Amino acid sequence: MALDIEPLQAPLGAMVRGWNPAKSLSEAERQTVSGALQQYLVLLFRGQPYVTDEQLIGFAHQFGDLLRGSAFLESARENPEILIVGNLVGEDGKPRGAGGAFNIDWHADYSYVDRVGKTSFLNAVELPRDPPRTYFVSQYHALETLPKETVEKLRGLRAFHSIAGYGGGVDSERLQADIERDRERGTERPPIPEA
Fold first, then answer.
1. What is the pLDDT of residues 89-112, one digit of tens each?
2. Cβ(100)–Cβ(86) below 8 Å
3. Among 155, 166, 157, which Cα is nearest to 193's?
4. pLDDT digit string (tens) for 148-185?
5. Nearest to 5 by CA among 44, 62, 55
6. How many degrees, rounded to 5, is the angle at CA 162 between CA 11 and CA 95?
7. Which of 53, 143, 171, 189 has the fewest CB atoms within 10 Å distance of its CB?
8. Of 13, 62, 64, residue with least CA distance to 39
């Protein structure tokens, strides 16, 4: 089945159908997805079979090198390319991820690393019935709709990005406990980057 891409009735986004996670994309399909991502900024894949972690990593690798970002925010995982964001708690009573949507503020993924990823992949495994929800915004549109004077003022400024001490989703006590547990296991965590 060929990929079918249908624009959403929104300022950004398109629906993609026909993706088979068990197969690598052909070069033509990869180009189609890349072009649609540039045009629509957010792609929503629906109707495919369940996607395993390995399939998601393999799919994402077709678009470039992956950031192993989970090492900054939680204990080392089998697949450090995947950062679990969720509200579920494990049998040990500890959160199974980096927190849920209710405690993560507005953010741009990995803006605190020197070389920011060009794309983020979000695999929604379980969706809550009630808000909060995940929303996406076009920063291009935001810039284009600002008054010209504001844009000129902003162009000369620099921003400092860091998650050290960030309170919007990173439980600092839990993070410290995870770091200590990793140290006891002999697992080295990279220092939290700042950009």
1. 778 776 666 665 556 667 777 777
2. yes
3. 166
4. 999 999 998 998 887 766 555 455 666 666 667 667 76
5. 44
6. 80
7. 143
8. 13
